[in-house]
Amino acid sequence: MSAPTPSAAPHLRLLLDLLAEDAPAEALGAVSSKARAAGVPAGELAEVEAATATALRIRSALRQHRRRELQLTALFDTAGDLAASRDLDDVLKAIVRRARMLLGTDTAYLTLPDEEAGDTYMRVTDGSVSVLFQRLRLELGEGLGGLVAQTASPYATPDYRTDDRFRHTRNINAGVLDEGLVAILGVPLLLGSSRGGTGKVIGVLFAADRAPRVFSPDEVALLCSLAAHAAIAIDTARALADTRSALAELAEANAELAEANAAVRAHSAAMQRAEEAHDRLTDLVLRGGDVKDVAAAVAGLLDSPLTIHDPGGRPLAAVRPDGAGLAADSMDAGWLVETAEESRTGARAVHRDGRWICAVLAGQELLASLVLHQHGRLDDSDRRLFERAAVVTGLLLLLRRTVAETENRIRGELISDLLTDADRDPAGLAERGRRLGIDLDRPHLLLVAEAGAREKLCAAALRYLFGGEIRGVSAEHSGTVVLLIGCGGDGDPAPDAGDAARAAAAQLGQLVQAPVTVAATGPAQGPRQLASAYAEAARCLRAMRVLGRTGEGACVDELGFLGVVLGNTQDVDGFVTATLGPLLRYDAQRGTHLVRTLSAYFGAGGSLIRAKDELHVHVNTVVQRLDRIQVLLGRDWNEPDRALELQLALRLNLLAGGQER
């Protein structure tokens, strides 16, 4: 008996086992070699090799997700340290240690300015082995840290010793050389904002390696997030120090002046109330509260109605002191944006027209505005509480944005798969959607947007979905940004696709600060319908581009007869083939340019002279080609009705990617 033919099945099972064990990439890559050595037939061997490539991609994706999860967990842990600990040293040490661990650097350290000495000193180090480096003091503006502090911007260098962007001094060079540092990344600790519009730099957080290294944008962003936590910790510690100092002064005054006891106790209680309020708000964030929960807590603490608005002035939450909902008043959005900018510039809450407004910031970015509907003046403790609430709200919005970006990225992968090949596994796509909270079987509007700055458009689409009442998911696909927006649920009528496209074009254009063109279609439901809807929206977008409607929003039904032809209910390819088929086949078989000649002739208004200039040929050549066109299409090809049909077919052929003029 002949030996049985080796099968691919054991090798495929081995791939699954290696994936489950998180085996190294080399072990996965060796499976196909083992299959080849075992004599697996060529057809099955190809399956093993394809499965190996897929397993390697899955392993890479899993590792990337684990790394993002680790980074997000570290940020939450840092927020927990900030809420649970009153020891500034412990919090800063934890932040520096996590910076070193997450970036995988040899060392990490944090410097703070010494206002009395007029220089900068090492506050915390992790992984440092040099006593000289740990005791290093720098003059203001020196080295990489000096540039970061002056510009309030992150800076990185793959080799500090040879980088001439920074002011090197003998003191700095000696410390860096003694520690053996080469690659250094520094980010500012920003707090509030100054009159110039940039955050106040209260320190610098560093991560450094003892070998050359290029820091990625993700690593810079992660270190900036940790620096934001460090700034909050330092500011909180200073606030608590101010409180303790005030309490000590009041206690001394109470001993010296008995008649001031009542005032001292009242002020002490106010300070304690502010500290307890801060703890309560921070704990609320850590327990998963949302913007409305924070608004309700602050409204109750200050006994006044409170509203929270996005950067454009649109309301996010509105509550009364008792926690009940509040109908937003007719506040002018432009006035609110202008007042919030004043608060951002002064780094303080401002009182205008019977309301207190405080900007919610993340570095230089305005995340939201708190509006306290309180006609009277706030005492210092209540004003500080109100301003501290803005800091906590900013922390909440940053955490929510991080989670939203991660979720949207995962959901965006589903949308890309849906639009790439919906017929491959529609049931599987629907099940993936349900696991991610997207019910593809419910009606959705599908929007396709494009702009000159595609990266800015991707970020703007996320802010558009995250910051307002719109609920959906976005993904980059084929050079455009696709938005899938749920609609028409629970008996509500489906919104108009054209109105949705215009609203999205306007708001995305404001966020990008550039024209954004949006084509919409739907409602559609189910993987196949949604994929078909995307194809229709993409055609609509191309039509808008050709028609010169850049920066607008529209649906297919609004493009007139061209839109009807472009719609999913029409056979566009059949129309083009039926109208131009003889010319297309003739050009394809003989390498001629009859379609281009006809397009140039119509574009020239029937002028042979202008047509020959457009085609760069002799006028006799144009005449000969038109004679051939007449033979192929019939003697009536230039009659008005037939000419209109031909011109429309030429335009549709151009939109579909066919031969150009």
Plain-language structure description:
- This protein has 661 residues and is of the alpha+beta class.
- Helices cover 57% and strands 15% of the residues.
- The protein has 22 helices and 16 strands.
- It has helices at 9-20, 25-37, 42-84, 88-103, 131-134, 143-151, 170-179, 217-256, 261-286, 291-302, 333-346, 380-420, 426-435, 454-467, 497-512, 527-546, 560-566, 572-590, 594-603, 608-615, 619-633, 640-655; strands spanning 107-114, 119-126, 137-139, 155-157, 183-191, 200-209, 306-309, 315-319, 350-352, 355-362, 365-372, 444-451, 472-477, 480-486, 516-524, 553-555.
- It has a six-stranded antiparallel β-sheet, sandwiched between helices. Strands 8-7-11-10-9 form a five-stranded antiparallel β-sheet, sandwiched between helices. A five-stranded mixed β-sheet has the order 13-14-12-15-16.
- The radius of gyration is 33 Å and the shape is globular.
- The termini are far apart.
Q: Could you list some keywords that capture this structure?
A:
single chain, alpha+beta, 6-stranded antiparallel β-sheet, globular, 661 residues
